[in-house]
Amino acid sequence: MYKECCQGLALDRRDFLRCCGGMAFLATSAMEASGATAHRAREPAKEPLPTIALGEHRVTRLIAGYNPIGGHSHSTLNLARHMREYFTVERTAEFLLHCERQGINTWQYDHTEKVQKALRLAREKGCGLQLICLHAERPHDAPLKEVMKFQPIAIVHHGGVTDALFRAGKAQQVRDFVKKVHDCGVLAGVSAHNPENIKRMVDEGWENDFFMTCFYYVTRPREEMRRELGKVPVGEPFFESDPEDMTQVIRSIDKPCLAFKILAAGRRCWSRSSVEKAFQYAFSRLKKTDAVIVGMFPRYTDEVSENAAYTRKYGGV
Description:
The chain is of the alpha/beta class. It has 14 helices and ten strands.
């Protein structure tokens, strides 16, 4: 950058100072980023978070989510791109280590190439997080035998795919997936956004070990909304009453539930107080045997330590 700025005789003092200032800013930013990473590496491990039983495993009531790492913002394209660019392999590995140091012991993830690289790097640095893989045997999904190489404690059928198959009259495919996962020797979960699908699986006595339950019915079909509301929103529907509908179902069943989107994909994150209220609400409505999965984007604040603190405050069992 200095060479480019100093080329030619037309460079005046103002241009030179502006150029030097830019170099100083970049150098300072790099030092700050390096210092932040070093600080996190030195931070003492926090006390473990409250846990629940998932089969033979103890899982913290706050589970780190995947969506920000994969760039699934459920908001805007630019935010999705920003998330993907921020979460490099190295930053993803550091994120996992930071989660563990804050007392989280489990990560729900998608089996992607970046995730595989990040997991290898994190494990080289001593990370021992338990893994819960979201999967659905879609054409782009890795075979289950490949997923098993990373030794997840559980594999869960993807919620969006679950809801689509139920609407298409193909729920048996989801039930067959549960059997395939059990044949791999790990716990089998089913995710869904529609509380009616959760109730149906319970009523039919499905063999899955636990559920992943979305606080918002974001896969609600357009025709259903037009019929019931007379209109449809732009983008995914996040209705204020949805968490109450899902948590009523959660409390009515015995199996553990891992609740996700408790922050409405960032819509309840306008202030720290609103985030805290969302955690308080979630743990007050869930069973003592349930946990939450929260995606975190620690670009601006240390959301990991903040959310861990809310879990200690409201998720004690």
